[in-house]
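Task 17 of the worksheet. Students: predict the tertiary structure of the chain below and write it out as structure tokens. Keep your answer in the requested format; marks are given for formatting as well as content.
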Amino acid sequence: MKKYFYGYNIVTAGFFIQGICIGAMFTYGVFFTEFQQEFGWSRGLISGASSLSFFVMGAGAIFFGTLNDRFGPRIILTVSGFLLGIGYLLMSFIQVPWHLYILYGVLVGIGFSTHDVITLSTVARWFIRFRGRMTGLTKVGTGVGQFIAPIVATGLIAVYGWRNAYLMIGGFSLIVLVLLAQLMKLDPQSIGVLPDGESNTGADITANTDSDSLSSREALRTLQFWIICIAEFTVFFCLLTVIVHIIPHAQDQGLRPTLAAAVLSTIGSVSIIGRIVTGSLIDKIGGKRSLIFCFIILISSLIWLQLAAEIWMLFVFAFVYGFAHGGFFTVMSPLIAERFGIDSLGQLFGIVLFVGTLGGTIGPTVSGYIFDVTGSYQASFAVLTGIAILGLVLILFLRVKPETRSLLPPAAD
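Model answer:
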């Protein structure tokens, strides 16, 4: 009888880590209007703290991804879970803008920085033949968090006020994230097994190993790697702008706070389908085609958003966009592993995430200031559409894996 494969514990722990971290991130739009009402802060100022958090998240991803390649995920996720929880606990005491920028922008940003780079690069080490599918299942946790967290946060604010809501979210996040971190192990070799749960006998070993990994230095010298980085910039520019501004936009369209939060929750729930479908597509058609598929859906949804003048149209947008949203956050780690191997996956994925979060830093802030100047999000949505088209064009130029090495100078004999 085949033994239970510990890799499923990695996927399960990653599922809940993703759900808690991204669920907490998605509540920022719910608290957005609370900050406006209590402090009178502009949307540009409030968006700036979110942008700083995205920037810190990206910078931290490089640092922690590199550490993960060397030391493994357990201690890293323990520290980041503690910092995220403490950051949310202290958010209940903010009074002035710099409190928001230090606590959410820096402390919570560090906490966010490990959820993708550590969990997904670890999953990629435990699975090869089923890497896309298991990455998709791990990222389903994000969709569940996106669906549940805005509704829970809205309810907590309504009953207990926004400060107590932050206390509860922070305490829960700290305890659960630290406990989940204890389940994480770097790779199957650390416990004497092979990826995908294969045995040492009777298995196709070559099908279950990544023997052609590039070092981080080699990968950084390829045009293909930087195409992926810039494409990720366009993805984060669009997706994180929508995360921050869709609730304020929905309320501007006349939706009640609970109904506006439901738009965000719809994105989260549909993204679950996007993650599962995209994960399966990656294993069948590869990362590049899966990424093109996601871009086409994203562009379609953003064009629709510019025409959405009715409540039902916003929910149609949320449904279509949510599929692309889930797909994008599933495809990148398998794509990098597919093209560059797993030896330096944490560091390479961290760099890609950092470049992406530069887009996430710029996008929400630019959209906030465009709104402050124009009184509307229409110009912002047009910009997002153009950025998404740029990302699609870049990915069309991404070459197949065997040509990646041709961009490097020949090795000396």
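Marker's comment: The CA atoms of residues 242 and 412 lie 49 Å apart. Residues 201-209, 402-413 have pLDDT under 50 and may be disordered.
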